[in-house]
Amino acid sequence: MSTESPGPPTRARRSDGATVLYVAFAVTVAVALVVAGVLTSGQPRSWLAVAVLSGLGIASWMLRGANVGERVTLSFLSIILLAAAVIGGPVGAAVVGGLATVIQVDPEKLIVRVFNIALFSSMGSLGGLVYRGVGGLDDASTMTSAGRILIGVGLPLIVTDIAQCMLNALLLAGVLRVATGSPIRTQVYKLLSTTGLAYIGYGVIGFLFVVLWIPARVGWFSAVLVLAPLFVARWAFVQYGDEFRAHESTLRALVTAVETKEPHNAGHSERVAQLSAWLVESLGLGHKEIQDVRTAGMLHDVGKLGVPTRLLRARRELTDDDLVTIADHALAGVRMVQDIDFLSGSVDGIAHHHERFDGLGYPAGLAGEQIPFSARVVAVADVFDGLTTSRAYRPALTVSEALDVMNQRAGTQFDPLVVDALGRALTRHEWTPTVRSDEELMAAGVAIDHDEPETSDLLASRPDLRRRIMGAPGRSLEAVPVVPVAEGLS
Questions:
Q1: How many CB atoms lie within 10 A of CB 205?
Q2: Are 65 and 238 in contact (CB under 8 A)?
Q3: Across the chain, how many H-helices and E-strands are there?
Q4: Choosing a second label site near 155 at 20 to 30 A (CA), which of 54, 70, 318, 375?
Q5: Cα–Cα distance between 283 and 293 in angstroms, integer?
Q6: Going by C-beta distance under 8 Å and a sequence separation of 6 or more, which residues neighbour residue 243?
Q7: 392-394-399-403 Cα dihedral, nearest 10 degrees
């Protein structure tokens, strides 16, 4: 399996010039590795074998699985490159990797195609160089002992597999860094955590491929013998991709329902989800935490489906009863999604995103690190997006102005650690304030939004209201496990 990026994501795109320079660097690396292969190993022993492997590589690339995540696709090219490192040597493997990505079914930008050619050519060359560098046998055709095959071919292939996996992750993380500002460490961890085990499994298949081709003298027909397990694995990844997209569709359906009631807040959930993911990246957490917090940000206001529309668009000052009703949206959201298995890691973030670091929030009055980590992140993202969005009673704050407000409230309303992460994230990613039209603002009403810091301060100063919120009918915190995950963040 190999993981490739079909071009830089569109959000938070950095300078195209920087991306071009990085792709030029990747091409330079590819050329340098090919030259090193020529100097150390010369031409492939069999160009016919290279041609067969190239055909397999092209087929693998054209039949690669559909997207299974954030613009990441799966193919079987890495197993072909691993076998090519032994059968074709560094130069042959480079040819296999380069040719595999030249033919495209769907049109792609030239820069994307060039990057993919450089990436897989580099993986092939490096594989061949590493295999021979760690003592891999140049000619395994005379090996008849299982022990000698394992030592002379198997162990070097393990090192080769690791080297190809790491190069793949590093080059992809680099292009994502220059294109979107995503931290290299986070992207490398994300790629390795989601594809590393698959590389190991496919490495075993690659070893069997080599053994069948050379010591067993099956030759090119060994390609047929490995098709079955390859396509079984491909089918499994495609199923995962289908499941992932089904989950995304479910989330967007819920968000669309909320935004139908609050059209003036369209896009708020998506922006909070994106900013929440950036915050967790800045804190150095892993892919699972990023996904859980992102989902919590996406669904943090889903409980508004149970709030009367007249309150969400109120044209008068909200009464105490109104505030209590609106405040119940946090736990109402939990009641809606807590039985959906794939949302289990996001429930705490939804339930507690209105808690305050000083303990004067709701619905449980938690303080400090008692508040689930995901909720502390979503709280910061939620309010920051609100501050940088136009309201009927004030214009959108600039990024600098909103960040000043967040810093002033660190330690009272917000976790200082998360506010610091916000500052770092905004230096890496571009954030544009959301300016609403006059028509949108007229439909929004004039009541102060529940996400405004002033509303949080009002409830913090009114213990009577907080008691009413905590004792609201239908409230059930017992069904909402609080699982802090802040360990390791200091």
A1: 18
A2: yes
A3: 21, 2
A4: 54
A5: 12
A6: none
A7: -120
Of 298, 296, 387, the C-alpha closest to 348 is 296
Distance of alpha carbon 263 from alpha carbon 436, whole angstroms: 11
Q: What HEC string does 218-261 produce?
A: CHHHHHHHHHHHHHHHHHHHHHHHHHHHHHHHHHHHHHHHHHHH
The predicted pLDDT at position 368 comes to 94
Instruction: Give the whole-angstrom CA distance, residue 359 versus residue 173.
Output: 39
CA distance linking residue 386 with residue 233, whole number of Å: 45
Residue 405: how many CB atoms within 10 A of its CB?
14
Task: Reduce the DSSP state of residue 394 to 3 states and report it.
Answer: strand
Compute the distance between CA of residue 142 and CA of residue 41 in angstroms, rounded to an integer: 20
* 187 confidence band (pLDDT: 50, 70, 90): confident
Residue 92 · residue 213 · CB < 8 Å: no
Task: Give the contacts of 129 (CB within 8 A, at least 6 positions apart).
Answer: 33, 36, 37, 40, 41, 90
d(CA 436, CA 264): 8
pLDDT tens string 390-410: 998 899 999 999 999 999 999
Residue type at 16? D
Q: How far apart are CA 486 and CA 490, in angstroms?
A: 8
pLDDT at 150 over 70: yes
Instruction: Categorise residue 306: left if φ over 0, alpha if ψ from -120 to 50, beta otherwise.
Output: alpha
pLDDT of residue 149: 79
Instruction: Tell me the C-alpha distance between 298 and 302, whole Å.
Output: 8
Bridge partner residues of 389 (DSSP): 434
Tell me how far apart the alpha carbons of residues 242 and 236 are, in angstroms, rounded to a whole number. Answer: 10
Domains delineated in the chain = 2-239 (no CATH), 262-479 (1.10.3210.10)
Give the integer Cα–Cα distance in Å for 30 and 446: 60
As a whole number, mean pLDDT of residues 347-360 equals 94
| Neighbour count for residue 98 (Cβ, 10 Å) | 22
Residues 6+ apart with CB under 8 A from 248: none
Q: By C-alpha distance, which of 335, 385, 379 is closest to 361? A: 379
296 contacts 374 by C-beta, under 8 angstroms = yes
